[in-house]
Automatic annotation (TrEMBL):
Pfam family, one: SCP2_2
Residues annotated to bind acetyl-CoA: V87, G88, V89, R95, R96, G97, L98, L99, S100
Protein name as catalogued: GNAT family N-acetyltransferase
Similarity-based family: Belongs to the acetyltransferase Eis family.
Amino acid sequence: MTLPDGYRFRPLTEDDRRLVVELDAWAFPTSSETDDVLGVPSPLSWDRTTGIEADGFDGLAALHASYPFTGFQVPGGTLPTAGLTWVGVHPQHRRRGLLSAMIDQHLADCMDRGEPLSALFAAEAAIYGRFGYGRAADDLRLQIPRGAELRHVPGAERHTVRIEAASRDRHGALVDALHRAAGVAPTGAPGLNRPGWAERETEELQASYWADPPMYRGGREPRRIAVVELDGEPRGYATFRRKHAWENAGPRGTVLVGEAVALDGAAARTLWGVLVDLDLMAEVTIAFLPVDDPVQHLLLDPRAALPRTPDNVWVRIVDVPAALAGRTYAADVDVTIAVTDMRLPGNAGTWRLQATAWGPAKAERVFEDPAISLDVRELGAAYLGGMTLASLAAAGLVAEHTPGALARASAAFAWPVKPVCSWVF
Ligand SMILES: CC(=O)SCCNC(=O)CCNC(=O)[C@H](O)C(C)(C)COP(=O)(O)OP(=O)(O)OC[C@H]1O[C@@H](n2cnc3c(N)ncnc32)[C@H](O)[C@@H]1OP(=O)(O)O
């Protein structure tokens, strides 16, 4: 879709940062002053940031950007992925097709850059399905009461814990290494990675992540970190901020955990043992955990932690054959899949996927009746292995034409480790 008359795209540079911050404040209302925001490092990759200008209008009418995730985890490997972000349209210019034009521009850019996938966090869940993005992962959010009992894990007692003021100088390398390891081998078993896991790959993302301006703390303390070690080697960490509160019953502070990562069950047990037992705190809240995170097995009373599982990362398949061939499958599969795609006609048609379990895969266009059919949105939803094709078929969104094909394809597309991205981009 092209831009309406009177609008034009303009590549943005760092010199446009004030315009970007001002537009962003129109799209996402904030009490922060523009000058204060300008004092904080920007996470944007400027060569992937594009604005829209309008005739007779000062400032930007709209904006979108993407992050380069060269190592985005997909089942059994990684694929170059564009992390779509900072999508915003000025309220005066909304519902005229600017987002639609930006998505088409973004998908064309992905094609040009050789990124078979685009991924995003949706500000509102109803926005992106129409553009072919599927809800590919959910995450687990918990409110764990102080003192929640945890099951014993052998070896946990051998770990030690450091609790410190978080800083990039002191903890940047440690956090990166553990975060990467948790994406590549969350269970320790080779080949079983965590689909959806993205690292903060660019210097801009790193600088932005570690910046800790008081205006973004919401009345909480500066960022803290708990590091779990075994024989002096880091095995897990959690970033967190406490907030003090005195109520009639006494201290009722809350701990907001940013990211909790552990390389095995014993380290996870130690980490959570610390988080649920901080003085003066009544509750620990966390979001963006995988729905199969160890903590939901370790909590003796998981119900008391009020679990919720809203949508996490959404995936848009930009290049169907590259994406199909670019992941590993959990079962042997030889299936023909008819795909519809309203925005990228090159994806439409029937594709034959052939793969051996945990081995190589290939995909090629064929001209024959398909065994199953679906829209590219559903393929994106199933792609990371978190949503099954069977469940999408139960909702009437995937059709089976050859008996047995759905069961086999669904088993092959599923993945033993649930997808998630641990931070919002
Ligand atoms: C990955 C990220 O960055 S997520 C952040 C998204 N940004 C925000 O939420 C900030 C506040 N909102 C906005 O800036 C804008 O309203 C946007 C970006 C959500 C939409 O931009 P617009 O230019 O108004 O969208 P556009 O006119 O292209 O609409 C395309 C279609 O999507 C629909 N749509 C747009 N926004 C929404 C929404 N929030 N919920 C449901 N449908 C929506 C429109 O109704 C339209 O449908 P139609 O084709 O059936 O008529």
